[in-house]
Amino acid sequence: MGARRKARECALQMLFAADVSEMSRATLTQDFWKELSDYDADESTRDFANNLAMGTLRRVKEIDKTIKTRAEHWRIERMAIVDRNILRLAVNEFLFEETPHTVIINEALEIARRFSTFEATQFINGILDAIKKDLKGDKSGDDDVVKESGSEEEKKTNTGEKSRAGSP
């Protein structure tokens, strides 16, 4: 597993902890790495995870508003905690990071496969794909074509160069 995927998983775990506990946002990242994480991450992985988690928490109202536009008949608070935080994390990256949207979706789906259910993966894919289409004019990475073969995914860029979707 790539360092960036692991960072996203750690960010998801931080968001989950913030959602289910009274953890202070001010100490969330420190508490996570000290007490909750069993992953020994290097500094760049920790920084990426911390930035994703804290950025998502800072902008949660805007992110939830974006999710609500495409989560038809679903209230955010009624979604499974893991699923809503996977969506929040991905939408945060859509809106505030430079990562191509297809890569963000694939990372979210791989994380959902690991931490949630098959049905949730389909649900998350549908919502993120609709949001991606809404944001199409903004850094969508639509030149990327993503192929799935089993659970392994490859990203093929318009230059013909191939790389793993989760690679740093």
Kindly report the CATH topology: N-utilizing Substance Protein B Homolog, Chain A
Q: Could you give the distance between the termini?
A: 10 Å
Count of folded domains: 1
Task: Please state roughly what percent of the residues sit in beta strands, choosing from under 5%, 5-15%, 15-25%, 25-35%, 35-45% or over 45%.
Answer: 5-15%
Low-confidence stretches: 138-168
Mean pLDDT: 82
Keywords:
single chain; 168 residues; mainly alpha; N-utilizing Substance Protein B Homolog, Chain A; three-stranded antiparallel beta sheet; 7 helices; globular; disordered C terminus
Explain how this protein is built.
The chain is mainly α. The chain has one domain (3-140): N-utilizing Substance Protein B Homolog, Chain A (Orthogonal Bundle). 61% of the residues lie in helices and 8% in strands. The protein is built from 7 helices and 3 strands; from the N terminus they run H-H-H-H-H-H-H-E-E-E. It has helices spanning 3-20, 28-36, 43-58, 60-70, 81-96, 101-115, 118-134; strands at 145-149, 152-156, 162-164. A hairpin with a 2-residue loop joins strand 1 (145-149) and strand 2 (152-156). The N and C termini lie close together (10 Å). Mean pLDDT is 82; it is low at 138-168.
